[in-house]
Fold:
Amino acid sequence: MRRDLRGRVVLVTGASRGIGRRLAGKLAKLGARLALTARSADDLAKLAGDLRADGTDVEAFPADLTSPADRERLVGGVVGRFGGLDVLVNCAGVCSFGEFSTSSEEVGRRVLEVNFFAPAEMTRLCQPLLTRSYEGGYRPAVVNVASICGRWGIPSMSEHCASKHAFVGLTEALRGEFQRFGIDVLLVLPGLVRSDDLNRHLLRNEGKIYLDFEGAQPSDAVADGVVRSLLRNKTEMAVGWVSWGVWWSRRLFPRAVRFFMQRKVWKYARRHPEG
Structure:
């Protein structure tokens, strides 16, 4: 199937920057009606204004998705403004780059709140709206933008990997459950993504392996992958050659991937014995 987004209501989380911001622009060009949410009210308002000037039917809903009250207010606002919902894209997220032994419970809980519990509860709140969309003759969808870290643990990113593994597991479980509601549940797995503002994206930036954040895949390329997944109804899509490499190698050469990850840690330890 090929999903038509013209005139359909799409809610994008994490829309003020990065993947979410690029995705909003691409969905607007496809004729979608956009509900955009993020914590930064100013950035969100500017994006909505720019899209509205180009003729897009769009509304900004500033919210902290870790807050139950904000989630309720957001979903109520979407219904009040658009009358329903056809697609939910869970795109918001944070990352912690650093060793597990030097982290804290506070950091771990924050990562899981943003990367797992918030999208889980957003999906729970939106499911009745998406079911009504199906009953109205459309094929609705939930698109979960996770990470290849949800398929293979990466050293120095333990909390991030834990949250993404949980998110991937939830996605796979809901894919089966939501079939009875007529809702497709899709999974997008980018690799390392270049951030608009690395310091805002990372709760910690002290990992002891080398990750090329500057040379990572651009947000625009990931947004393209999300659009392809949605239009083509792709159950699972790895985005970028690094993500594809890990995705396939995990299945074909798991020992090689494990050795490669361990080697990155060993190389750092030899170069920085004091660490």
